[in-house]
């Protein structure tokens, strides 16, 4: 097994090595002998800059292959945790996990009409490349749903300019002003 310490509080997760390395090139490399031997505890990996709520979702996903669905309490998973989970997946190079997170984001929008906040959008834009599926997803969410009312205007305030331009472009492509 591997001990993974996450966040400033060093929350401890114990995960089977085969499970941890199955879809993450990051963990595959971290557990190679030449890297493991350099650590004080070879079977311990520290992710001290990462979010423990996001890693909890990741560890659940590793064993179940899914993030809670809309029918199974996804409403109780804060959107921020999904954003942090997506970014964790990016760091771990676990694209299967990222795809599951995107699927969960779509389920949250479809089931509950919940959208990413301007802070969520900033986090994705600050930490992912332009080609990121999460960026496109957030643009699509807002391009479809945005309207000219105060609630939406408040949602859009503080969003990255690059995001706002993409939303306008998609709305124009869809024939909306």
Automatic annotation (TrEMBL):
Q: Where is the BTB domain?
A: 1-71
Q: SUPFAM superfamilies of this UniProt entry?
A: POZ domain
* A Pfam family that the UniProt record links to this protein: BTB
Q: Which CDD domains match?
A: BTB_POZ_ZBTB_KLHL-like
Gene3D superfamilies according to UniProt:
Potassium Channel Kv1.1, Chain A
InterPro entries, sorted? BTB/POZ_dom, SKP1/BTB/POZ_sf
Q: Give the highest taxon in the source lineage.
A: Eukaryota
Checking PANTHER family in the record gives: BTB DOMAIN-CONTAINING PROTEIN (PTHR47843:SF2), BTB DOMAIN-CONTAINING PROTEIN-RELATED (PTHR47843)
Q: What is this protein called?
A: BTB domain-containing protein
Source species of the chain: Lophiotrema nucula
